[in-house]
Amino acid sequence: MNAVLLPGPSLTSPPEPYDGMRVSEADYWEFYYLGHEATYEWNDGVLEEKGVSDYLTFRVFDWFIQLLTEFLHTHPMADRVGLEMGFLLALSKKVVIRRPDYGVVRHDNPVPLTGLAQSYRGIFDLCLEGVSTSSKVMEERDTVVKKAEYAAGGIREYYLLHHSPRLRQFYRLNAQGIYQPMPIAPGGILSSEVLPGFQWRLQDLDRQPPMDALVTDPVYQSYVRLEYQRERQRADQEQQRADQERQRADQEQQRADQEQQRAERLAAQLRTLGIDPDAESSQ
After folding, report:
1. How many C-beta atoms surround the C-beta of residue 130 within 10 A?
2. Residue 217 in domain
3. Which of 93, 109, 110, 156 is most deeply buried (CB count within 10 A of its CB)?
């Protein structure tokens, strides 16, 4: 019996990488979406390998995701996904399947995230990309191409993270469907409209302070480590009560000492008058 060759990249395609190879959308989802060393996106029939960010950019990205996780833990208004989950954008001139490094879906999004989903059938409310500078093409794909696609697809906010401030951008969709840089408030503070209450200081993307250090920072204290803040407040209150009790005890001891001193002075005065204070007290 002759062997039957099944379709798929291992049998019908050249060895990896597949970057630039033309495939149908159906074949992309079946054969190229999962199961490869590289991550591939699909741009109107062409496979595009996702770039890799450097370690310094990962550190910026990781700190920002910690911050976002803290916010959504405190204000559970959205779900997040960080597995390069793909989603389809049917644009006016082409169809693309993009796989952002991180996505956020609000709970009021008409297409919720589901537990067993390996792709997302709606439009993310917020996309984050760690800019890859491994090649000029990959850098422009994140900063120019995807920016245009995400805006045209209606993604409300798009954040580009990188260790270089030059490549960091935070975009918000305006009424005309165009991305504009998010306004920067005094102190270098940016605030999300997709996630009301989520705000951060641009300088901290470089400093990357630990989360525990943010609990007294007015920019972050409304959502970072609230349980820790409550425990700390309870501990402070207990310490305050203990200090008050100790102060009351000290005051009582001080009054007792003063009474003792007065008694001793009175006894001394009686002795100068030839009166035995012990005899007086026994009568």
Report:
1. 25
2. no
3. 156
